[in-house]
């Protein structure tokens, strides 16, 4: 039932979509996104995640850090603020790298929507990131965001399908 992770770039609107089908229920995938369990799979391969705050409600925050397992770089401090929470099908949040005070800069966030859709005995999950224009969408590849999200979904698959 599980599939490979697929990356799609859309030109209108400017979106990066990373998706995969899992041999797991929508409720199971929801828990993976909305509990500290997210630290077990979030981030690219070779990186670990620490969850510092997880308040899954509209206006709530997910504060986390990611760091390479080899210790070669300092942890990156991130914050996501939830805009939409519809259990167990939709999470939408503005995500970005936190400033020195632990807050999101006004112009440095990306709107992300996670959809979880039960179908054919499994669950299709899509992460859609919206960009303001084509130049910003192109940064998804150069920054490694697209492959990092794909690797995160691969790790999620390993986590829920073992």
Question: In a few lines, what is going on in this structure?
Answer:
With 162 residues, the protein is α+β, with helices and mostly antiparallel strands.
Structural description of this entry:
The protein is an alpha+beta fold and 162 residues long. The chain has one domain (6-160): Alpha-D-Glucose-1,6-Bisphosphate, Chain A, domain 4 (2-Layer Sandwich). It has helices at residues 26-34, 134-142, 145-160; strands at 6-11, 14-22, 47-54, 61-68, 76-86, 90-97, 109-119, 122-130. An eight-stranded antiparallel beta sheet has the order 1-2-8-7-6-5-4-3, covered by helices on one side. β7 and β8 form a beta hairpin.
The strand count comes to: 8
Query: Which fold does the CATH topology refer to?
Result: Alpha-D-Glucose-1,6-Bisphosphate, Chain A, domain 4
The CATH superfamily is START domain
How would you classify the quaternary structure? single chain
Low-confidence stretches: none
The coarse silhouette is globular
CATH-scheme architecture: 2-Layer Sandwich
- Measured as a percent range, the helix fraction is 10-25%
Radius of gyration of CA atoms, rounded to a whole number: 15 Å
**Tally of domains:** 1
What is the straight-line distance between the termini? 13 Å
- Which structural class is indicated by helix and strand composition? alpha+beta
Query: The biggest beta sheet, please?
Result: 8 strands, antiparallel
């Amino acid at each position: 039932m599980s599939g490979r992770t697929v990356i799609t770039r859309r030109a209108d609107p400017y979106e990066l979509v990373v998706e995969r089908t899992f041999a797991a229920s929508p409720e199971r995938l929801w828990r993976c996104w909305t509990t500290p369990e997210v630290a077990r799979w979030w981030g690219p391969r070779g990186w670990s995640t620490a969850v510092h705050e997880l308040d899954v409600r509209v206006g709530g925050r997910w504060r986390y850090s990611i760091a390479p397992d080899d210790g070669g770089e300092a942890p990156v401090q991130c914050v996501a603020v939830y805009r939409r929470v519809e259990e167990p099908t939709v999470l939408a949040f503005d995500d970005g790298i936190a400033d020195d005070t632990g807050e999101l800069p006004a112009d440095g966030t990306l709107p992300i929507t996670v959809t979880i859709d039960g179908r054919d005995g499994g669950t299709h999950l899509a992460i859609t990131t919206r960009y303001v224009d084509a130049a910003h969408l192109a940064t998804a590849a150069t920054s490694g965001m697209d492959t990092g999200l794909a690797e995160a979904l691969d790790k999620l698959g390993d986590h829920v399908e073992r």
